[in-house]
Amino acid sequence: MTGLKLRTVGRMADIDAADWDKLVTASGGSVMLKHAFLQAFETSTSVSLDTGWQPQHLLFLDEKELVGAIPLYAKSHSYGEFVFDWAWADAYQRNGLKYYPKWLCGVPFTPVPGPRLLTTDAYRPAVAAGLLEWAKLSKLSSLHVLYTEPADQEALVETGCMPRSHTQFHWFNRGWHSFDAFLASLTQPKRKKIKAERRKVRQAGIVTKVFTGTSLSPAHWDFFYRCYANTYHMRGNPPYLTPAFFEQIANTMAKHCVMALAYEGERPIAASLLWRDHAHGQQRLYGRYWGAIEHVDCLHFELAYYTPLEWAIANGIDVIEGGAQGEHKLARGFVPVETQSAHWLAHPGFADAVEQFLAREREGVQSYADSLTSPFKPEIGD
């Protein structure tokens, strides 16, 4: 198999953390792929056979040296992925075929682009080919590699996967020295909207505070989980992540945590949590979780966007990734960014049909991005 020896491992706990993280560093250094982050999903039982995520990580060895690794899961559903293939699963079922289980490569519940083939350029083609060969030998219906980086996407497509495009909205720091300077760069309607939304929150008597790292107490985390779980309960769903997941992150990766809390007097009423990262030479925030125990008009925008933006400007953050979808982010200074995934289906007939669909979808994604109007004032000379 591609000249490399392949091992499968069913638990992150059985993989040497230093060896795994060495490959993460070689691939750009994202915290979202660190051993401690991925292991927290498993040891907290947020990711398990019972929750429909069966870990089956791949390790590639050249002689005895670990030269490649892939976070891989056998999925019995399509929840928590944010790249939607429900229609494909439905088509399989209507034709008497099994779509699940399927292979999924990515970070559970996390729509953040990043390396998926943890390796170096020299081994990337072999690791990509090894992954696809493994998927074919496994006899599962399909392989889905989500939120890839360009080098991985190129290698996966070259080896036989189908490319898919999506749109997210990211915020890029243009060197603003304050939130007011950021506002001044927006068009008048966008600036007016943001000021009005922030004013509503202030007039309701709400103040916000940001806590990071060791300033986050167990009480902060307990309240955050109340809010996080309530977001799911309001929709009639159980939360994806257990309290134990956040406890482990608080104990092992606190320096990567940024939490914004909203207070009515001394009483907290809402919380948002972002991950802080340093990857490819940039300081980044990933906007992930939000919830409240009371409704206040526009508080979601304040706590999920404006307070983190203000903190990001003050702390030299280069990029905020706002997660999946969300055209409403455009009005708040985020701009469209194309993201990628790679897919392989074992059934030739369905693979042909999906390939045609993805070609049309890519055209639609591009047309959608082209139709959006920038929230920023035009620069002189534009």
Brief digest:
The protein has eleven helices and 15 strands.
What does this structure look like?
This is N-acetyltransferase. It comes from Jezberella montanilacus. The protein is of the alpha+beta class. It folds into 2 domains: 5-167 and 339-371, Aminopeptidase; 174-317, 3-Layer(aba) Sandwich (Aminopeptidase). It is 37% helix and 27% strand. The protein has helices at 17-26, 35-43, 86-94, 124-138, 150-159, 179-184, 188-203, 218-233, 243-252, 299-314, 348-371; strands spanning 5-9, 53-55, 57-62, 65-70, 72-75, 102-105, 118-119, 142-148, 162-172, 206-212, 257-264, 267-279, 282-292, 319-324, 335-345. The strands form 2 sheets. The protein has an 11-stranded mixed β-sheet. Strand 3 (57-62) and strand 4 (65-70) form a beta hairpin. Helix 2 runs antiparallel to helix 9 (243-252) and helix 7 packs across helix 10 (299-314). The mean pLDDT is 95.
